[in-house]
Specification:
TRAP transporter small permease protein, 2 strands, membrane, DctQ, two-stranded antiparallel ribbon, transmembrane, transmembrane helix
């Protein structure tokens, strides 16, 4: 159980890291706009870097949202069911999500490894590596799959996933 708790803390940390990406995107955009306005010179690669940070913002936060139980759920229905049925339904939906996200994690990991092996780059005004974004997406889905596995384990042993004490 300590390992599961450590993974959850790591997922929360990754959520904070995704929040830092918002700050960095803001800095890059403000600096780029200021340099364009003052010196008519943009920051080369600012758009591409902001896009990479946007990917980090979204995908590194996936598991954190699941850890804090902030994902969309049909609680209107679940809250009116008897607790035993609600627990079974919660376990069933968690297992379905685990299977679906695990498949996505598997394929995104394969794509990230391929992209890394060929050092995939974008072509435009500035060549920018694509493999970091693909790697971030894979990491996000792997962490989400692990969090869903943690949730399933807690549900199987009878702990409420909202209060894992």
């Amino acid at each position: 159980m300590k390992l599961l708790r450590a993974l959850e803390r790591f997922n929360i940390f990754m959520g904070v890291a995704s929040g830092v990406a918002i700050f960095l995107i803001t800095l890059i955009v403000v600096a780029d706009v200021a340099l364009r306005a003052l010196f008519r010179q943009p920051i080369p690669g600012a758009t591409e870097l902001s896009t990479l940070l946007m990917v980090a913002l979204v995908y590194l936060g996936l598991a954190s949202v699941q850890t804090t139980k902030s994902n969309f759920r049909m609680e209107v229905l679940i809250n009116y069911l008897p607790s035993g049925i609600a627990r079974i339904l919660n376990l069933l939906t968690t297992l379905i999500a685990l299977v679906a996200i695990s498949i996505i994690a598997w394929y995104t990991t394969l794509e990230a490894l391929h992209s890394l092996s060929v050092k995939e780059m974008s072509y435009g005004a500035v060549s920018f590596p694509i493999y970091p974004a693909r790697t971030i997406i894979a990491i996000g889905f792997v962490l989400l799959a692990l969090q869903l596995l943690i949730d399933a384990v807690f549900l199987l042993v009878g702990h409420d996933t909202k209060d894992k004490s």
